[in-house]
Amino acid sequence: xxxxxxxxxxxxxxxxxSVASQLLRKRSNLNIGIIDPSEKHYYQPAWTLVGAGxxxxxxxxxxxxxxxxxxxxxxxxxVSEFQPTENKVKCxxxxxxxxxxxxxxxxxxxxxxxxxxxxxxxxxxxVSSNYSFQYAPYTWxxxxxxxxxxxxxxxxxxxxxxxxxxxxxxxxxxxxxxxxGILDKCxxxxxxxxxxxxxxxxxxxxxxxVVSKYNIHxxxxxxxxxINGADKTIEFVTKEIDENLNQKLSxxxxxxxxxxxxxxxxxxxxxxxxxxxCHAVPPQSxxxxxxxxxxxxxxxxxxxxAIDKHTMQHVRFPNVFALGDCTNxxxxxxxxAIRKQAPVVVENLLAILDKKKMTAHYDGYSAxxxxxxxxxxxxxxxxxxxxxxxxxxxxxxxxxWAMWILKTKILxxxxxxxxxxGTA
Length: 424
Known about the structure:
Layout: E1 4-10, H1 14-26, E2 32-35, E3 40-42, H2 47-51, E4 61-63, E5 72-75, E6 79-83, E7 88-91, E8 96-104, E9 109-110, H3 118-121, E10 127-128, H4 136-145, E11 149-155, H5 165-180, E12 186-192, H6 201-213, E13 217-219, E14 223-228, E15 233-238, E16 247-249, E17 269-274, E18 277-279, E19 284-285, H7 288-291, E20 320-322, H8 335-353, E21 366-373, E22 376-382, H9 401-419
Parallel strand pairs: 1-2, 1-8, 2-5, 8-20, 10-18, 11-12, 11-18, 12-13
Antiparallel strand pairs: 3-4, 6-7, 7-8, 9-19, 14-15, 15-17, 16-17, 21-22
Helix pairs in contact: 1-8
């Protein structure tokens, strides 16, 4: 195996494979290496559907080797260190690889440990997370067997991949319990680090009505710090307390990760809430090998790669580009964002290679398909300015059946057959 590549791609997920495929479609003679240690490749957007009982988890995974683009070299190793001043990447095996150009897209890191007790109770005690291939099926088991009581759904204070996922499963669970005739026996809580249900007003207005329809109790600006599965309790810190709900204040110190920076710690109160079912979403950050590297944004506490948010080029190293969930671009971390970022990276990288001016521009486009019930979905599309960017000639803020078909049938097919191959 060669130790030098014209273009070295770190990450063999959606972003890495899409960029490599598109580059080769533009220029078939490029010498491209892809570093990724994973045996398996996952279509993660379907895990919400797995948790809702309408998707088989086995259909969301394929062998990575079958997806690596032809005429590239798969380096099946894990990166440990970036040395951009030397155009070098080190791997945990000790192997080193050099490059002319580097594309960084290893995805995001799930920080399960930042919620005390979460990792230990996942998959049992009626605690699950659709952010895990292993436990997404258990989410459906919990929802299907629920007989009523307190159901809690959490959303961390950090940016996360697929920002709508924490509440997508909540709406589907509520709809299932409604059809089952037990919703009136369920007290549903949404504990979110955000300060609103959605960042774009047009779509938020729709979701507020959905929250009201299901009688969901929302806790905004709240940060989950601990989950005790055996005792069926969840602890979170928050500024606002709803005295009417079945929750109590704790006298313990509120140790918090990623709580909203403008809030003073002494203003926060720790709340203990009893639950019968809990779907938890872990805080997330850039992978450690990025956080500890010269590529990171020193102003970002979560260690994301510092790029120009329009060109996708690194702000300090001109032969380095990054895309996907690992960057500090202020966009939602979604597959739809990657689909718009990848052509920009490809066009601008080739321009730099040809010693030409970069002209491709990413406007922050992202999309979030949010099912509000079985058979109906709202497709939220927007850009950096949080302006709706609707693709279809309908009001996509109104949930409808056609968008449900897009999410459940069309997008999975497009992912495996077009997006990863660089043709969509």
